[in-house]
Amino acid sequence: xxxxxxxxxxxxxxxxxxxxxxxxxxxxxxxxxxxxxxxxxxxxxxxxxxxxxxxxxxxxxxxxxxxxxxxxxxxxxxxxxxxxxxxxxxxxxxxxxxxxxxxxxxxxxxxxxxxxxxxxxxxx
Length: 124
What we know:
Layout: H1 5-24, E1 36-42, E2 48-54, H2 61-70, H3 72-83, E3 92-97, H4 100-113
Parallel strand pairs: 2-3
Antiparallel strand pairs: 1-2
């Protein structure tokens, strides 16, 4: 599905501001966990933001995701304080674990485990 220019602009704003909020984490929402916002997609009406969170150094990603979900209202409130003058609606946040890096590592491991014999120069 193609996003409109408005959706892309809004998703970049949400990604930047949420990233700043969670990096500083002044309220102790994550309990010291290091996460980053990998990607944000917006619904066409800009009311829902799907936030993909990268947690490379976390051992228990599901527990960290649960922390985010349980404090979602507080994160949304802080986000509203930062972007409230720029937007009409503060979107509802839905958090997902971003698995792109894990998938890339798994694919690289599979490629490295392949037993491909070297090409013969005489075959040409």
